[in-house]
């Protein structure tokens, strides 16, 4: 399965759940610069090949983040929990499979049942979810955050 360089689809499940209004679709460009690797742990979204652009650094707010929708089953949360540090997680909530739709004050929020996860490490902070969000290994390539 191939994914576009420019994610544009919103998950039907997220739309039905009322999350579409909070969706942020990132338009990415091409950048050339040295790669910087950030080891963020396991790779849950095996569907996303290495080099897939997740977001531009400039589009990820400090203490916040963006949700990037690739298709009905593949969405990624990209966050900046502290200046210059970027993290990425599978956006599918570990409780009931809804898509997390917002990052606020370093919390990734799934509004379906109000589960909340840390944008630092993906660990559950509150709500019915018991498991953390799976982390995605990333690296910086120019001005982009990409799958490592």
Features:
148 residues; mainly beta; four-stranded antiparallel β-sheet; 11 strands; globular; disordered N terminus
Would you kindly provide a written description of the structure presented here, covering whatever features stand out?
With 148 residues, the protein is mainly beta. It has one domain: Rieske [2Fe-2S] iron-sulphur domain (Rieske Iron-sulfur Protein, 3-layer Sandwich), CATH 2.102.10. Helices cover 3% and strands 35% of the residues. It contains 1 helix and 11 strands, in the order H-E-E-E-E-E-E-E-E-E-E-E. It has one helix spanning 12-16, and strands at 35-38, 53-56, 65-71, 74-82, 85-90, 102-104, 107-110, 115-118, 124-126, 138-141, 144-147. The model is unreliable at 1-43 (pLDDT under 50).
Q: Give the domain tally.
A: 1
CATH-defined topology: Rieske Iron-sulfur Protein
Helix and strand element order: HEEEEEEEEEEE
Let me know the CATH homologous superfamily.
Rieske [2Fe-2S] iron-sulphur domain
Major beta sheet, strand line-up:
1-10-11-2
Q: Extract low-pLDDT stretches.
A: 1-43
For the sheet with most strands, the description reads: 4 strands, antiparallel
The percent of residues in helical segments reads: under 10%
> What structural class should be given to the helix and strand makeup?
mainly beta
Distance between the termini: 18 Å
Oligomeric organization of the protein chains = single chain
Work out the strand percent. Answer: 35-45%
- Average pLDDT works out at 78
Determine and state the CATH class. Answer: Mainly Beta
Radius of gyration, CA atoms, in whole angstroms? 14 Å
CATH level-two architecture: 3-layer Sandwich
The count of strands amounts to 11
Please tally the helical runs, counting DSSP H or I stretches of 4 or more residues: 1
**Rough shape?**
globular
């Amino acid at each position: 399965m191939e994914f576009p360089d420019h994610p544009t689809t919103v998950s039907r499940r997220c739309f039905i759940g009322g999350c579409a209004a909070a969706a942020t679709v990132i338009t990415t460009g091409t950048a050339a610069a040295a790669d910087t690797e950030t080891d963020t742990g396991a790779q849950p979204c095996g569907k996303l090949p290495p080099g897939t652009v997740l977001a531009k650094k400039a589009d990820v707010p400090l203490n916040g983040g963006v949700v990037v929708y690739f298709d009905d089953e593949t969405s990624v949360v990209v966050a900046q929990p502290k200046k210059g540090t970027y993290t990425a997680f599978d956006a599918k909530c570990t409780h009931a499979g809804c898509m997390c739709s917002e990052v606020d004050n370093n919390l990734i929020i799934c509004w379906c049942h109000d589960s909340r996860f840390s944008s630092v490490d993906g660990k559950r902070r509150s709500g019915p979810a018991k498991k953390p969000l799976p982390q995605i290994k990333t690296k910086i390539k120019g001005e982009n955050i990409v799958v490592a």
